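Hi,

Apologies if this is the wrong queue. I'm a grad student, and the batch job for TonB-dependent receptor from Sphingomonas rustica produced an output file that my downstream script rejects. I'm not sure whether the problem is my script or the file. Here is the sequence I used:
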Amino acid sequence: MRIGLATALLASAAWVAPAWAQTAEPPAQPDAQADSKQDSGIAEIVVTAQKRAENVQNVPIAISAFESVTLQERAVNSVAQLSAIAPNVNLDAGTPFSGSPAVLSAYIRAIGSDDFAFNIDPGVGLYLDGVYLARTVGANQDLMDVARVEVLKGPQGTLFGRNTIGGAISIVTRDPGKEFGFQGDVTTGSYNLLSARGSVDIPITDALGAILSFGVKSRDGYLKRVPYPDQRANNTPSYTAFSSAGYGNGEREGGNDNWNLRGKLKWSNGGPVSLTLSGDYSRDKGTSANKLLGTAETVPGNFAGTANLPGTAFDPTGTTGFNFAGLYNFCIGATSGQIAARNAQALCGTSGTQFNPRFQIPSYAGVNVDGNPANDRLPWDSRYLIADPDRSYATGNSFSDLKNWGFSGVVDFDLSDAVSLKSITAYRQLDWAAGLDADGSPLNFLQLSFTMDQWQFSQEVQLLGKALDNKLNYVLGGYYFKEAGNLHDYVTFAEGQVQVDGPNRLETANYAAFGQIDYRPTEWLGLTVGGRYTNEKKRFEGGQQELNGFNYKLFGCSDANGNITPNGPFPLAPVTCQTGLSYPDPTNPVRVYVPGTNRKSFSNFSPKFGVQLHPTDAVMLYGSWSRGYKTGGWTTRLTNPQGNVAPDFNEEQATTVEVGVKSTLLDRKLQLNAAAFTTDYQDIQLNIQIGTSPTIANAGDARIRGFELEAIVAPVRGLTVNASVGYIDATYTRVSPAAAAVGGPSPFQAGTIVGAPLPKTPNWKINLSPRYETRIGNGGSLIFLADWSHATSAWNDTQRTYILRRNASDLVNASIAYQEPGGHWTLGVGATNLTDNRYLTSGGANIADGTFFGTYNRPREWYARFGFKF
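Support response: The file is valid. Your script probably expects a header line. Output copied below for reference.
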C-alpha cells in the first residue's frame, strides 16, 4: 500500500534536480567486487544545506549537487558553467557593460540580478566554505579543488540570510587528506589555452594537516578586433582623451590571464574541538567580448530641434530634435549657420568645461562641410555592424584586473554527544578595475570603465543539536556582517557629449538571529519550522558628475568654447542656471547627485514551515512555505541633476510554496526527484533605462510558477545517465506607471508590461548527460561522456529589447578519456559547444545614445587534459 501510494505520487508530480552522481563503482582496481550492491548503484552525496551533513536525498529542499569528479569530467571550471546542467538556473559569466567574465549574473527560478553596481545586491547568495560573498564581482569563482557545489533553489532566508531570495550557491572546498598526496591536471586547447592546476595534501602531525592548491590559466580571446577601412577613423580622438579608470586594449577580447592560490590548515585530534583555517587569493585578468549589435541614430529627441524653447537648444516635444547619436551626426555635417539656427553652437562646440581642462576636446562642428577633407569625421550609423559574432571594429578600452582574496577560521566544538557549537569568522577584500568599448567602433560612442574596492567582515555562530532520541534536530545561530567600499563609474557617450564621472561609497552593517527545528515524531512524518530576523543599516554617498555640463550647454548657459556659466541667468526663469537646472551642489556646478550621506534601515523576518512524509525508506514527499527578501538601496548612474532628493528603492520580497518528492528506487539503480512551486514576487527591483541612465526602482510584482525534474539511472555497470527538465512561467502582474512609460512597447522593444515574462528566464531547460565507463584489456578504463542542453528563448533585459533577445540554444559537449589501471593518471580530449551554437548571454540598449551592444557565448572549442593523482 505504501509503495503504491509513492508510485502514484511519483507519476503525478513534477520533477526537481537532485544530486549528480556517478555509479558507486570505484575507478576500479582489478580485484574490485563486481557483484557488490554498494558498488553498482547510484552513489550518495552528502550536503550541508541545513548546516549539518546529510544525504541530499533526505533534505526537503530542491538541490542540485555536483561533486568534484562530475565537475572535472564535464569540464566545468567556473560557477557560470553550471548553468547548462541545473534546471531553472541561469548563470552567465558577465553582466551588461561589466567588461569581465569574473562577474556573475545569477538567476534561480527567475529571481536574481544582472548587475555589478555596489548599490545593487545579488538575488542569489554565493557562499565559499560557508562565507557569504557580497558582490557579484568575483562571484564567478574558479572551481579549483572543490569537494562539491550545492545549488539550493527558492528562498533560503532562514539559514542563509538576506539576498538569497532566489536561492543560494554553496561551494565547499576539499579538506586536507590524511596521507601525503599530489594531484592536478594540465590542459591545452583552442585559442592557445594553457591551464595547470594542482593540490598537495600535507599531513604535518597525526592531528594537523594542510592542503595547498594552485591554478594558472591563459587563453587568447575569441573576438578579434579588425581595423575599420576608412582613413577618417584616424581623425577620431583616442579613447585616452577621456577620463577613465584606466587605459588598455589589445587585438582580441574574451581572453584569460588568471592565477589562483588556496590553502587550508585543519587541526583535529579526535577530541571535542577542531579548527580549520583557510585562505585564498586570485588574480583575474579575463575580459568580456563585446559586440555592437545595432544603432538608432534616427530616433527623434529633445536636442537641437526646430521647436526649441526660446534661448535654448531644448525641444520639449522630443519630435524635431535629435538623440545624442543624431546630434553628433548633425554637428559634423551642418554648416555654422545651420547649427546657429538651432541654438546648437555650445552643443556642437568644445567637449568638457573649464572645470576639467585636461579632458577638453576641440569642437567638431561642421568638420565634414568645411572644405577640408583632412579633418573629416566618421558618422555614427550601422556601417560598424559585423555579422560575424567574433569580429569587431572596436579601438577603445578592453581590460579587467581583479584581485580577490580572503581568509576564514572555523571552530567546531562538541559540547556533548548531542550538542555542538560552530563559529565561522571571515574577512574578504576585492580590488577591481575594468574597461570596455561597448560601441564596437573606432568612435568614442559608448566607452565604460570602473573601479571597485570592497572589504567585508562576517561572524557566524551556530548551535546544532539533537534531542528526543535523535527525532529532533535544531540549528540556532547569530550572524554579523559588515562591508564597505566604493565604486567609481566613468562613461563617455557620443564623443564626449555626456561624460559621467561617478564616485560612490557604501557601507552596510547587518545583524541576524536565526533558527530551524526539524522534528520527526514518527517514521513516516517530519515537520520543519524556522525563521530569521534581520536588522540592517546602510549608508551611501553618491558623487556622480557629468563633466561636459551638457544641460548647461543645452539651455544656453555656456559658450562654444566649453565654458559654462552656472551663476549666469537661466533663460526660462529669473534664477541662476545652476538653480534653474536643479544642480544640487553650489561648490561643484557639474555634480548631479545630492551631496551628503544617505541612510536607510531595514528589518525583516523570513519564516519557513515544512512537512515531510516518508511512505518508504526510499521515498520522501515534502511541502514547504517560505519567505525571502533582498535589501534595498539607492539609484546611481545618473546624468541629470536630482535636486535635493537621492532616489532610492526598497527591499523586494518573495513568498514560495513548494511540493516535491525525492526517491531512490530499483536497488539504487534509479533516482527520481520532483518539485513544483509557485512564488509571489513583490516590489521587484527593475533596471529601467531612463535616457542614458540605467536606474533601479521597485517597479513591479510577478507570479512565478514552475516545476523541475531530474533523473539518474544506472541500468548496467559502467553506464550512468543524468537527465533533467525545468519549466518556468514567470510574468509581471503589476508594473509601475513610471516603468511602463519608459519601458513601454516601441519599434525597438516589446516593453515592460503586465503579462510580460521576466528577464533571463527561458520557459524550458532540458539536459541529457550520459556517461559510460568500460574496462579494456590492460585493466585501464575508457570513459565516454556527452552533454546535450537545450534552453528555449529568453529576454536578456527588462525592456525586452528585440535585438538583445537570447535565441533558443542547443549546446553539445563531448569527451573521451583513458584512465590507466592504477588510477594514477588520465588522458582525455573533448570539445564544448560542438555545433558552434551562438547566442547572446547579456547586452544593453541605450537608445538615447543610439547604441545596442551585447556579448555572445563562447564558440566551439576543443581541449586535451592530462590529469594525475599520486
